[in-house]
């Protein structure tokens, strides 16, 4: 599946041409922010015979990542922009500017330049949207984030939308923490089709809530 998927009408992925999703991992990442896409997209891939392939990638060097609540996760691969159609950026640690979390990513100018240059569809979950903002990807765009960071997102030039998921074409953002479930199910619907999304919901025994705002 080629990069630059914005505007594609679902279903756009198949087992022969799978959607390649990378989830960016870093110290201080919120567990729910990345576990939701791992679970939802992993299940959708299984149910569709491999139409979506998901992998965890490190923001820095490969190795063990310590999450917000102490969960240790081994991340063996670095982020490879050319090997992803979708890059999911979770949040975490936003209230602690001196600790691990998204503030260390927003201070990494090299990472921000790579984000800005990447052709992968950027997807921000919770305060992961603030990383995309720091890379200049939300300026003048419709976007959302955790309610505690919406004022900051607006101050950095985004048009903040009060919705669970905001799909602005070549930029997708989600609200706080558990919105990662809705963001991930929306990705399934957008790229694998409504039937795949509904089947995934049935197996998960989870019903989506809130609004998917589309440009």
From TrEMBL:
Residues 20-189 form the DJ-1/PfpI domain. Pfam families: DJ-1_PfpI. This is Transcriptional regulator GlxA family with amidase domain. Gene3D superfamilies: 3.40.50.880. InterPro entries: Class_I_gatase-like, DJ-1/PfpI, INH-QAR. It comes from the Bacteria. SUPFAM superfamilies: Class I glutamine amidotransferase-like (SSF52317). CDD domains: GATase1_PfpI_2.
């Amino acid at each position: 599946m080629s990069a630059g998927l914005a505007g594609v009408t679902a279903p756009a992925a198949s087992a022969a041409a799978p959607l390649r999703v990378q989830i960016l991992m870093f110290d201080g990442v919120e567990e729910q922010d990345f576990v939701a896409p791992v679970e939802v997209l992993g299940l959708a891939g299984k149910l569709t015979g491999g139409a979506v392939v998901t992998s965890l990638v490190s923001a820095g060097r490969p190795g063990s990542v310590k999450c917000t609540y102490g969960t240790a996760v081994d991340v063996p691969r670095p982020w490879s922009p050319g090997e992803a159609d979708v890059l999911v950026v979770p949040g975490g640690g936003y209230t602690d500017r001196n600790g691990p979390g998204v503030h260390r990513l927003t201070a990494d100018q090299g990472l921000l330049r790579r984000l800005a240059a990447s052709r992968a569809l950027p997807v921000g979950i919770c305060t992961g949207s603030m990383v995309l903002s720091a890379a200049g990807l939300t300026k003048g765009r419709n976007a959302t984030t955790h309610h505690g960071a919406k004022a900051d997102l607006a101050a950095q030039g985004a048009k903040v939308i009060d919705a669970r998921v905001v799909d602005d074409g070549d930029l997708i953002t989600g609200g706080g923490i558990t919105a990662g479930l809705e963001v991930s199910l929306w990705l399934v619907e957008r790229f694998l089709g409504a039937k795949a999304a509904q089947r995934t919901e049935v197996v998960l025994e989870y019903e989506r809530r809130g609004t998917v705002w589309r440009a």
